[in-house]
Specification:
Layout lengths: L2 E4 L6 H12 L4 E3 L6 E5 L3 H11 L8 E3 L3 H7 L5 H10 L4 E6 L14 E5 L4 H8 L4 E2 L14 H8 L5 E4 L10 E4 L6 E4 L5 H8 L3 E2 L26 E6 L2 H17 L4 E5 L7 E4 L4 H17 L4 E5 L7 H11 L4 E3 L1
Parallel strand pairs: 1-8, 2-8, 4-6, 5-9, 10-11, 12-15, 12-16, 13-14, 13-15
Antiparallel strand pairs: 2-3, 3-7, 4-7, 5-6, 9-10
Helix pairs in contact: 1-5, 9-10
Bound molecules: threonylcarbamoyladenylate and magnesium ion.
The site of threonylcarbamoyladenylate (TXA) has 28 residues, from strand 5, strand 6 and strand 10.
């Protein structure tokens, strides 16, 4: 049985206390953050964390992010807190930034997928912060079945988990729409493991040049350090095709592809920043912020309309565009058409 807790009109402390108690009892509670919805459990409770992996169908070696509400909690999770971590936390927390640091023994290996590092973030969402404060640090991957697009609405979580977890807190649509930026600070050089809601440019303003893990832009590689990178991600049932290149040529190419696929009898959906005539169309918005916010919803909604193919317009890889393109390419299984 799943209870859906309505908090769309803002924080309700009575409901938060009930939800926090569920977390402390080892139950699973999905909750909104500013990026996407998370599927939460007590980060230090092995049994509870195991249930997250089970519910999601997530491979055991893909580690979870631990969510905190107070900088002091970081000291209970991380063995070392380098200068860069302090600087970034001070500037960007609460916010869509996750830091990977050497872990303390208290953090179960189940939570970190067997790694001796732990990923930590402080979300910028009043419901998430209140839930953590009323319970404990919360391990939470995105609240989607493994391999599916991340959830930006409680409805998405209900679609994937109703009847399989104890509670879902409905806090309305998430603001950012793509997951947090993940930076590894556990080794020599700061390294971007996953582009996300906080643009890389902003991070480099604070700590200088950051290495970009090759898997961020290119094809996924099998790499023990970045376990999340090797799995299928964000994929709807329809085949996604990403069209990349100069804007004018991309538009031209999308029109061509729509004709081509339709002539073969496929139902074609398009998600783009301007209107196209196809069987189904989802308008992503104009700015990169809007595109990021609408991205996962577009994939899920087009899928519900039973299209065979989703043609997605590529955007420039600056600011949030780096995260958007990373998600789109993965969603397409790297089926990329150059215009
Ligand atoms: O915005 C977000 O980050 C959302 C919300 C709920 O906070 N959470 C999220 O979690 O996206 P998840 O599990 O879907 O993605 C976590 C990513 C994965 O790519 C995982 O491999 C990586 O972070 N990660 C976690 N711990 C790590 C570690 N110790 N070392 C390297 N990568 C790690
Ligand atoms: Mg995820």
């Amino acid at each position: 049985m799943t209870i859906v807790i309505n908090m769309r009109d803002g924080l309700d402390w009575r409901k938060i206390r009930v939800s926090g108690r569920l977390i402390l009892e080892g139950k699973l509670v999905a909750f909104p953050t500013e990026t996407v919805y998370g599927l939460g459990a007590d980060a230090l409770n092995e049994e509870a964390v195991r249930r997250i992996f089970e519910a999601k169908g997530r491979p055991a070696d893909n580690p979870l992010i631990v969510h905190i509400a107070d900088f002091n909690d970081l000291k209970k999770l991380a063995r070392e807190i380098p200068r860069e971590a302090r600087l970034l936390a001070e500037r960007f927390w609460p916010g869509p930034l996750t830091l990977v640091l050497p872990k303390r023994d208290e953090v179960p290996l189940v939570t970190t997928g067997g790694l001796d590092t732990v990923a930590v973030r402080m979300p910028a969402h009043e419901i998430a912060l209140a839930l953590i404060r009323s319970s404990t640090p919360i391990a939470a991957p995105s609240a989607n079945i493994s391999g599916k697009p991340s959830p930006t609405l409680a409805e998405h979580v209900i679609d994937d988990f109703y009847g399989r977890i104890e509670a879902i807190i409905d806090g309305g649509e998430t603001k950012v729409g793509v997951e947090s930026t993940v930076i590894d600070l556990s080794s020599e050089k700061p390294t971007l493991l996953r582009p996300g809601g906080l643009p890389l440019e902003e991070i480099e303003k604070i700590i200088g040049p950051v290495e970009v893990h090759p898997a961020v832009r290119g094809k996924a590689v099998d790499l023990a350090k970045a376990p999340g990178m090797k799995y299928k991600h964000y994929s709807p049932n329809a085949q996604v095709v990403v069209v990349e290149g100069p804007r004018e040529r991309v538009r031209e190419k999308i029109r061509e592809l729509i004709k081509e696929y339709r002539s073969k009898g496929y139902r074609v959906g398009v998600m783009a920043t301007e209107e196209f005539e196809a069987d189904e169309f989802f308008y992503l918005g104009k700015t990169l912020e809007e595109v990021a916010k609408n991205l996962f919803k577009a994939l899920r909604e087009l899928d519900k309309k039973n299209v065979d193919i989703i043609i997605a317009e590529g955007v420039e890889e600056r600011g949030l565009g780096l995260a958007v393109m990373n998600r789109l390419r993965k969603a397409s299984g790297y089926r990329i058409v150059r215009a």
